[in-house]
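Hi support team,

I submitted a single chain yesterday and got back a structure, but I'm not sure I'm reading the token output correctly. Could someone confirm the output below corresponds to the sequence I sent? I've pasted both exactly as they appear in my results page.

Thanks,
R.
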Amino acid sequence: MTRPPTAAQRRLIEAADPVTGRLKGTQAQLAALVKRGLAFRHPRPPHDHFLTPAGHRIRKGEETPEAPAPQETGKTSAPENTSSDSGVFSARVGGEKETYDRSARMREVRSAWQGLLELRRMTNPDGATDRPCGWERTHLVRAAALALEAAGQQPEGPDTDGYRVRATPQPEAVAVYGPDGAALRAYVTALERAGWQTGEHTEPRTRIRYLLASPRRV
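Hi R., thanks for writing in. Yes, this is the structure output for that exact sequence:
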């Protein structure tokens, strides 16, 4: 788990604009928040700094900084435990132990999704919130999993059926598995509403059906 922000950094976070998350501080202070994943530098002039979803959660007193991402190498790799009892938020990609309060988890997911929509608005060149942003394109597995969970879909657990999101060798594409065809169709709806494009495929050797999902660009 990453270290919590310092008292000075927390003051900057708490002083951020409550709507946009715009930050004020010295370049060194802002760069330190960026390094921790709590802020980002807007790519367009005047290159202001804004809170990331993780930064917004800290400002609201909901979460501590996000833990390192689950391993995204190969569709069969086991993800890390991302349950809420660890004190951090991370999208559930399927296969984790379900040791969290479901109602609290849904509040965290809604907060994370709203933060991601704000990140889209601030970083997409046209301010669009209906398609993925740059952060999602560099965190494909977590971004797709968050879109699914925010739409009410359940991840696969030790004793439950649900989705599994795994990395693929293809650029900007993840594989999404489900327990049956009906589930895959529901995942298509959830992902496309979140700005992803999908296609259904079959593994040649196992004949398992899965979705190939990519962030939509237009």
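A quick pointer for reading it: The beta strands are 22-23, 39-41, 49-51, 164-167, 174-177, 196-202, 209-215. Let us know if anything else looks off.

Best,
Support desk
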